[in-house]
Amino acid sequence: MLKTLGLLLLSNIFMTFAWYGHLKTMGHKPLYVAILVSWGIAFFEYCLQVPANRTGIQFFSLAQLKIIQEVITLVVFVVFSIFYMKEKPQLSLLWAGLCLIGAVYFIFRDGSGATH
User: On the chain, which terminus has fewer CB atoms closer than 10 Å, C or N?
Assistant: First the structure.
């Protein structure tokens, strides 16, 4: 289970940089350069995401895996936006986080995990 969570965390770090990192570092470059660099970064994200899902499905249902991934994505995005992009924290991120906590509650409340 910890392997899955670690891989999901690392994959989300790569994907956040693939999706948003170019906004800070490549604004002056042609769009196709940003796309190619983002694809290159996303390759490493997939090298982590696919094994995370393969191992995770042994412990979690598909829906649980997705909710876990979304929570990790929001946490990574908040850290990225504040510390890398230097954006001020917004109250809307707190509300989004609370909604995800609700999602976690509802997806895990019946105690069912992987069906495999």
Answer: C
